[in-house]
Write a structure and sequence with these properties.
The complex is a heterodimer of chains A (221) and B (167). Chain A has 221 residues and is an alpha+beta fold. Chain A has helices spanning 3-24, 42-52, 72-103, 143-150, and strands at residues 109-116, 123-131, 134-140, 154-161, 165-176, 182-193, 198-207, 212-220. Chain A has a domain at 111-220. Chain A contains four helices and eight strands; from the N terminus they run αααβββαβββββ. In chain A, the strands form two sheets. Chain A has a four-stranded mixed beta sheet. The longest helix of chain A has 32 residues, at 72-103. Chain A is elongated and about 135 Å long. Chain B has one domain (22-166): Glutaredoxin. Helices cover 40% and strands 21% of the residues of chain B. The longest helix of chain B has 19 residues, at 2-20. Classes of the chains: A alpha+beta (221), B alpha/beta (167). At the A-B interface, helix 4 of A face strand 1 and strand 2 of B.
């Protein structure tokens, strides 16, 4: 067999084998590898191969971002901002507690609260508080504030420091009594300031039998 | 020469005009210091309770002529804009409470007149010359401050008030 016959046989065999390779799913040597295909031609090549070969049975679909969903970067940034805000709030809370502890340590702290019950015979206008004959607070009440007290609110009217020992607290209440008369009354208490914090409450209640308001100072042990 | 003098005079008057509306350096842009004062009608009013509304606070004294001139103008502003969310508060800083009350009653303005008998508010607001007018926005921040009053100044107040009411 001469060279010419050999070449002819190779070509014929190649022509016969080419359809067989296609049927078997093998890539013909003529098809270039994917990497060498230009970018523009890739989808076409992919389509062609997908048409020829079945897609993998359990291939996960790529996540498609929703049209109105914010991009992931923005989402992360927003989360960071929220985290920072929370940190600031926590820090503020801690600072407030520290400030309270420094300014009003428990061993010298005196807290004074005010509450009202019913209030039929008295409309509160102002309260003046004196501790050991020194005015520590003078508070004017607006209609809203007085209303809040009547609804059961308790107001911290004073927070301060006192030495351990005996002290005197005097509170003056002014307002309108029954029949819209100007009314001014005082109440006092002598108390012992111990090593712990001291809590006192000014209470305004109605004394129904006498049709008079009653002003009390309660020492919360 | 005359022209130079004229220009100089105009510049000086402009400078004076600007100075009369100069904002207090330390109160503008800051939270308005809160106060509670007794009014002419016996009610107590607290500034912070008007949060959410635009508040014009006018500090005045009975003896000051500008204050007398200003009060009717503020009354007109109050009548026109109170429905839009404006609150006008007049604060008397007179020492003589009785005479101050008499004066306020005689002026017969429609907005509340409050009486400051202490000195704390004067310190908080850096009161130096009367009358002093400040505008507090809905968030409680001082946005405008003016010292003194001349005819026509109410137009400046109105511009600022409209601006704040629109926010």
């Amino acid at each position: 067999m001469n060279l010419k016959d050999r070449m002819m046989r190779v070509l014929v065999c190649g022509a016969l084998l080419s359809p067989a390779w296609t049927v078997m799913g093998a890539t013909a040597p003529a098809v270039a590898p994917a990497k060498s295909v230009p970018a523009a031609a890739q989808p076409a090549a992919a389509n062609a191969s997908s048409a020829d070969t079945p897609p993998p049975a359990e291939a996960p679909a790529p996540p498609v971002p929703a049209a109105d969903a914010p991009p992931a970067e923005l989402k992360t940034l927003d989360q960071e901002v929220q985290g920072l805000k929370k940190d600031v709030v926590d820090l503020n809370k801690d600072l407030f507690v520290l400030q309270e502890e420094l300014l009003f340590p428990a061993n010298t702290q005196v807290a004074l609260y005010i509450s009202m019950d019913v209030g039929t015979f008295f409309a509160l206008d102002s309260v003046t508080v004196k501790i050991d004959n020194k005015e520590v607070k003078n508070y004017l009440y607006t209609a809203r504030e007085a209303d809040a007290l009547l609804k059961g609110g308790v107001q911290q009217i004073y927070l301060g420091n006192l030495k351990v020992g005996k002290h005197e607290l005097v509170a003056f209440f002014t307002g309108k009594g029954s029949a819209e008369r100007d009314y001014k009354r005082g109440a006092s208490i002598n108390f012992d300031k111990g090593v712990g914090a001291k809590y006192l409450e000014l209470k305004i209640t109605d004394r129904v039998p006498k049709h008079q308001p009653e002003f009390l100072i309660k020492d919360w042990e | 020469m005359r022209r130079a003098l004229l220009i100089g005079g105009l510049m000086l008057s402009a400078a004076i005009s600007t100075a009369s509306h100069a904002a207090g350096p330390s109160i503008l842009g800051k939270d308005a210091p809160d106060f509670v004062l007794r009014g002419l009608d016996g009610r107590n009013l607290r500034l912070s309770e008007f949060r959410g509304q635009v508040v014009l606070v006018n500090f005045w004294t009975r003896s000051d002529g500008d204050s007398r001139l200003q009060m009717p103008a503020l009354d007109r502003i109050n009548i026109t804009y109170q429905r839009a969310g404006l609150v006008v508060l007049g604060v008397s800083v007179d020492d003589d409470l009785r005479r101050s009350k008499e004066f306020a009653t005689a002026m017969g303005v429609s907005y509340p007149i409050l009486f400051d008998t202490g000195s704390q508010i004067g310190k908080d607001y850096f009161l130096q010359k009367m009358p002093m007018t400040i505008l507090v926005d809905r968030a409680g921040v001082v946005r405008y401050s003016a010292v003194g009053f001349r005819r026509g100044d109410e137009r400046v107040y109105l511009d600022k008030i409209r601006e704040l009411l629109r926010e």
